[in-house]
């Protein structure tokens, strides 16, 4: 039996862990609020029905009380007319209506108490809903902040500062290598010039020297 209990506990623990992992806090909060809204709507319907019953009973009480007064006035009118039998019948009906009025009054007071209780509970539900809605906004903001922090942490773990620094160092080494290769290639190319190339360069240098001397003479003549 202990083994089966242990297996059951492990199974329930795994199921609860899966549910906790699958639940999105923001979505679940919205669902809870929707459920509360539905409960409030149902409560409003119940309160409206109870208020209707309360009003109906109040109307019946008032009508019965009015009829009691009316029968008493009729009994007096019958006595004044000398019709005692009619007066008696009016008083009998008055007593019956008075009993109904008393019964209606008791039902009205009970219905009113129920309606007042439902109104109070409905108000509490609405207050609680408002508090839960405000709390939902706070929890939603905290959840979004936690998700953003989690994404940042994951990004920093996948590509940290050390990795970037190492990558830049490798690229700098490659650039230095390319520069060294280019300089070596230039030296090799310069050392392989032909004899004719060297004479052309010499002639070019001599021509430049003659031009410079010519300009100097021109300047001297102008003076």
Automatic annotation (TrEMBL):
It comes from the Bacteria. The keyword Transit peptide does not apply. Pfam families: PspA_IM30. InterPro entries: PspA_VIPP1. Residues 26-74, 101-188 form a coiled coil. Keywords: Coiled coil. Belongs to the PspA/Vipp/IM30 family. This is PspA/IM30 family protein. The lineage of its organism: Bacteria, Bacillati, Bacillota, Bacilli, Bacillales.
């Amino acid at each position: 039996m202990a083994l089966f209990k242990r297996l059951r506990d492990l199974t329930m623990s795994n199921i609860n862990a899966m549910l906790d992992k699958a639940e999105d806090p923001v979505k679940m909060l919205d669902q809870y609020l929707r459920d509360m809204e539905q409960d409030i709507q149902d409560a409003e319907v119940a309160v409206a029905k109870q208020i209707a019953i309360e009003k109906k009973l109040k109307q019946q009480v008032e009508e019965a009380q009015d009829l009691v007064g009316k029968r008493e006035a009729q009994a007096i009118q019958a006595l004044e007319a000398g019709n005692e039998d009619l007066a008696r019948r009016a008083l009998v009906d008055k007593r019956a209506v008075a009993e109904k009025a008393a019964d209606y009054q008791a039902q009205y007071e009970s219905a009113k108490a129920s309606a007042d209780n439902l109104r109070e509970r409905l108000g509490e539900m609405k207050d609680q809903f408002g508090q839960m809605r405000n709390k939902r906004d706070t929890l939603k903001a905290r959840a979004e902040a936690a998700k953003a922090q989690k994404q940042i942490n994951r990004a920093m773990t996948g590509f940290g500062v050390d990795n970037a620094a190492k990558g830049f160092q490798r690229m700098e080494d490659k650039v230095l290598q390319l520069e060294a290769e280019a300089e070596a290639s230039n030296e090799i190319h310069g050392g392989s010039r032909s004899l004719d190339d060297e004479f052309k360069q010499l002639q070019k240098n001599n021509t430049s020297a003659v031009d410079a001397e010519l300009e100097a003479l021109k300047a001297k003549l102008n003076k």
